[in-house]
Batch of 2 targets.
Target 1
Amino acid sequence: MVNSIRAEVYKLTRRSYSYILLLCCAAFALLVAGLMCYIKYSAAPDVELINFPLAINMLSMGMPIGLYLVAVGGDAVFSEQYKYNTLKNEVSYGLPRVRVYLSRLVVTLLLMAVVFVVTIGVYALASLVLLGIPSDAGAMASFGKNTVQAIQDAFQMLGFYVLASFPLWLGAMSLALALYFLIRSSNLAGLGFLAIMLAVPAIFDNLGKYVNPVFFRLYHVTLDYMSGLVISTETLDWPLIGRCWLIGLAWAVVSTAVGLFFFSRREIS
Amino acid sequence: MSDVILQTQELTRRYGRTVALDRATLTVEKGQIFGLVGRNGAGKTTLIRLISGQSMPSSGQITLFGQISDAGLNRARSRTGAMVEIPSFYPYLTARQNLEYYRIQRGIPGKNCVEEALELVNLTDTGKKKFKTFSLGMKQRLGLALALMNQPEFLLLDEPINGLDPEGIVEFRELLLRLNRERQTTILISSHILSELSALATHYGFIEKGKVLETISGEDLREKCRECLELTVDDAPRAARVLEQQLGTRDYEVLPGNQLRVYAFLDDPQTVNRTLLEQGVGLISAQQKDSNLEDYFLNLIGGRHHG
């Protein structure tokens, strides 16, 4: 397993796709920080309201992006194996398919961790430089607490959002990878992922509203719904974190089990 | 310890209603170069894909290095090298990077094996050239390099000379013969270029419509393909007696249907014909025959054996 992971990392670090993904995420983080800076300096009266702690607080809004970004990460790692027919080189050497599958899952997780750290790092650094740390008076006006407390609280909430979102990302990532392994075309797999992530919750929501409220139960276990629930929370909600882990891990386990089941029987051409 | 490297028993692969491989049974022993002969779509690739684990059998059994369980077969496959259909690699990596990726993945210690494999197939000077810019011949060579990288005991090669230029074909043939001679590498090779196969193989398996029609050693095949006088007579035992007693030869064989193959008197067939007639043997037909692997195969799939 370690060899397979090392090999995937070797391949990934030699593929421009991974660097472009990192660059795009970093550029996006810079863009958001830049936009906030522009607003701060073009809206003179409330100049103190937009500052570093606020930028960190606003990160929660970006958490659902991770839910969809994992599909791009999965695509980078899976590397269109069906298009290039490279899986046969692994299978014919006798590498167990479980190992082939799980190594991709682990490396996608590693890649997404790097993407996360780089994106958050660039965003935090840019916000710090461009927006600055507010004075105690400014912090009091914005957050009703002093600067140190405001920053501490912002990071605490960031930790909470990440803790709650991580299992949801993991569930989405497992789903994306299962689809890449099951569907020959990476584009179709990507579309399938979007359909499951966006269309299915919308369908359950509407069925719950117009057909039978029992469909709400299904809607409430979708990753999209849970992600929305997380960002709408303004205080540390530990039961919610527990629910996120339960649902996220359930998605991860079921997706991986289904993906492995079909991949282990799949004809490799 | 058994010298059997591969054994398939009643191996069958169905795709819906189509039977791609129909109860194929064959044995490949250590040191053999086993040539799979068959037309396009006969089932050669299906058989190799089943052995290499790319496809699952519908029924039947594969024994590789004595292993039959799924886990055992996977372990056994690490002692093989396979090149099935068109070699496939990551297009954005160079030849070295592609091999290095598989070296790491397979846990092969030391980087020397990558260089050695590239040297074996004359691909050391590709530098930073990406796989996507390779010619078909270069791709074939890289595919072979990957198959050889782990110094396999058993090589599975499916149409490996497709895309190679004449010089490449000769080098490839010499390489396989060298591996077989020096490392005792057992080889299962399929090709529809029968002249190439006959220059390599020590044993043959003939496949048609998913069925293994016959397996035969190169020696026996040569014997069957020997130049001969093929006679159809009214009384084969009597003709045999005439050959032995009147013409003094035992270099013949009796086939079903009152047929005889005589390997003597090839430069004077009239003597045989005349003597048989003089001794009262009715001669229905007589013809001189000389066949090669291609003729043998064509006659086999046509349902007719001859020498």
Target 2
Amino acid sequence: MTTETADQPSLSPAPAPASSRTAPPVTGKPARTSLARAGKHVLMVAMVVIALYPVVWMAVSSLRPEGRIFTDTGILLDTFNPENYTNGWNALSHPFGTYLLNSAIVTLGSIIGNLVSCSMAAYAFARLSFRFRRTTFAIMLMSIMLPIHVVIVPQYVIFAQLGWINTFLPLIVPKFLAVDGFFVFLMVQFIRGLPRELDEAARIDGAGHARIFLQIILPLMKPALATAAIFTFIWTWGDFFTQLVFVTDPALYTVPVALRSFVDAQSQSSYGAMFAMNVVSLLPVLLAFAVGQRYLIRGIATTGMK
Amino acid sequence: MSLAELQHLTADRRGKPRLRSEERKEQRKLRRVSERDNKAAAIFLLPWLIGLAGLTVGPMLVSLYLAFTDYNLLQDANFTGFDNIVKMINDERLHQSLGVTFAYVLIGVPLQLVVALVLAMLLDRGMRGLSFYRSALYLPSLLGGSVAIAVLWRVIFGDDGLFNGLLAFFGVTGQNWISNPDTALSTIILLHIWQFGSPMVIFLAGLRQIPRQYYEAASIDGASAWRQFRSVTLPLLSPIVFFNLVLGIINAFQSFTQAFIVSGGTGGPADSTLFYTLYLYQEGFGSFLMGYASSLAWLLLVIIGAFTAVNFWAAKYWVFYDD
């Protein structure tokens, strides 16, 4: 943003046109840069079109009659055909609302779990001095890199023995146990940036760690909590692998698993219905993006999360 | 980065000059308080510790044991020594899946980073509408990992899909890119490259950290735009490129959804999209050969670890730290 203003002066003409010898390069340069600038905008707009075309085309196609999906490559919507949505909603064994609700339950549970457990762990790593702090912190960082595949088989066995397969528990309970080290890391970084004087003052006033955490740190770390909440929302809403493994009962299908069964039942051509439900599944993510863009972009830029 | 920071903090404390007596007293009081933190830390870390023991370390140990068994969920596990390793050496589908995954990682990840870097460079020079472009170009990263987009990809590159429609517009006759073993993987690599937005955002943040004076100095010395890129931008951005590369490779090795959906769970046609994790899923949760799947999982961990180690080793030669 500051760089934007830094570029501006080159646009304004030289303040002293008296010296005619220097005039040609000064007037020549803005013309060239503004042309270059226009060219860059054309390029960027082209990139945006390329990047978003498939998604926009799908959204438009979902409102077209079935037969036109494969003949119309344009994105101008001249008919409004909501049938695909009603068809898609009722195409699978349960109305699509069931899957949306299931995904909402899993997502909400995951968000609450991550916020509670990760912020607690982060407070300990950032503010408490205890034995093995460096070791445990290093272990936490390493756990971020661990592929889920290494633990998924034993986890499956554990959850099967607990009778949790075909419940949402295998998807939600781990979040209450801070398994997403990314968020612990994010919150540790954030808490470290808060002035220590605040908790020291509270400590002198006789506050214990529980009070310092709940009444001082937590209210101050709202931006970090928002970032973690939005990322948890997007990741959980889109997560396919664990949901595919742990949920096999069609009544408990989450949205991604339900969309997958659309593909399997694709023998009859119902692409319009499938597109419609694809669009429905993406809407909450787009909404989250619109609401939390600030936190998202900042979160990616500071931690390199996806 | 944070570990170094931590070391820095502790080093600071040790290196502090002697304090006046009252300050020392205060310090001692604080330290006494902080020694009591052990109990508090145990409470605050309790959920994480349970998760670590019950969902990470415990399962890792079990998985390591299962890797040497014939466990199949229905019967008890029998220790079979190195049978699974011998099986892996002779397993042609495994070799195929390794080839597919390596191709995906080694082509997809660098290409995505190049696209991300080029766009970040174009956007960086204080463009009007930067935040709009950034958001719009970030969107594919946000959506790209979903089942919905993978389903869309399957349709776009299918027989009568959008891609062939656009080709026809230019008079080119297309084909079914998904059902052709020679092109199916390319469509998934393209899907990966399409999600260049998140590394782009990280690059943008990094570019903003480069002091403008460096460029001014370089252009006074007569450095061309390319030379400025080679000698200023690239070295100063190299830690971020490195970071993106390491994380990108780790993540790409674990890609699953795209291949699963595009190939309908088969890894086809002719195993040309049999991603490693997809094969692991088929063995573990399709055939319930969970012992073998555990071996596969550990091989994946070893491969990812090896790639990461090589990355860190190679970093010495091209990553520049400005301090």
